[in-house]
Amino acid sequence: MSTEPASGPTEDQVEILEYNFNKVNKHPDPTTLCLIAAEAGLSEEETQKWFKQRLAQWRRSEGLPSECRSVTD
After folding, report:
1. Cα–Cα distance for residue pair 8/71, rounded to 1 Å
2. How far apart are CA 73 and CA 3, in angstroms?
3. DSSP assignment, residue 62?
4. 60, 66 contact by CB (below 8 A)
5. What distance in Å separates the CA atoms of residue 5 and residue 28, rounded to the nearest whole number?
6. Neighbours of 22 (CB within 10 A)
7. Which one of 10, 27, 35, 44 has the lowest number of neighbouring Cβ atoms within 10 Å?
8. Whole-angstrom distance, CA of residue 56 vs CA of residue 51
9. What is the percent of the chain with per-residue pLDDT over 70, rounded to a whole number?
10. Which residues, in sequence order, are CB contacts of 57 under 8 Å at separation 6+?
11. pLDDT at residue 1 greater than cutoff 50
């Protein structure tokens, strides 16, 4: 049994994720994602999922579609 809350990352973890999202890279490559996950104490899957959701949220706030294949779409 895992003691991790099913509700997602803690406040401290979100702070690390937000910092990386806003200051470092909105589209981290696999290596960077791995480092962010390690820093936040999350799995790579959780970190990737968070970035995907956060990117969709950011795109909506910018008035863009939440999913976009490329800049030319």
Report:
1. 31
2. 43
3. T
4. yes
5. 25
6. 11
7. 27
8. 9
9. 81
10. 66
11. no
Please state the pTM of the whole predicted model.
0.74
> Is residue 54 a contact partner of residue 36, using CB atoms and an 8 Å limit?
no
Which helix or strand (DSSP H or E) is residue 2 part of? none
Rg of the chain, C-alpha, whole Å: 13
**Geometric angle at alpha carbon 46, from 61 and 18, rounded to 5°:** 40
pLDDT tens-digit map of 35-70: 999 999 999 999 999 999 999 999 989 888 777 655
pLDDT at 25: 86
Measured between alpha carbons, how far is 46 from 64 in angstroms, rounded to an integer?
24
Tokens of 66: 């939440």
Question: Is residue 56 within 8 Å of residue 67, measured between CB atoms?
Answer: yes
Find where tokens 């936040």 sit.
40
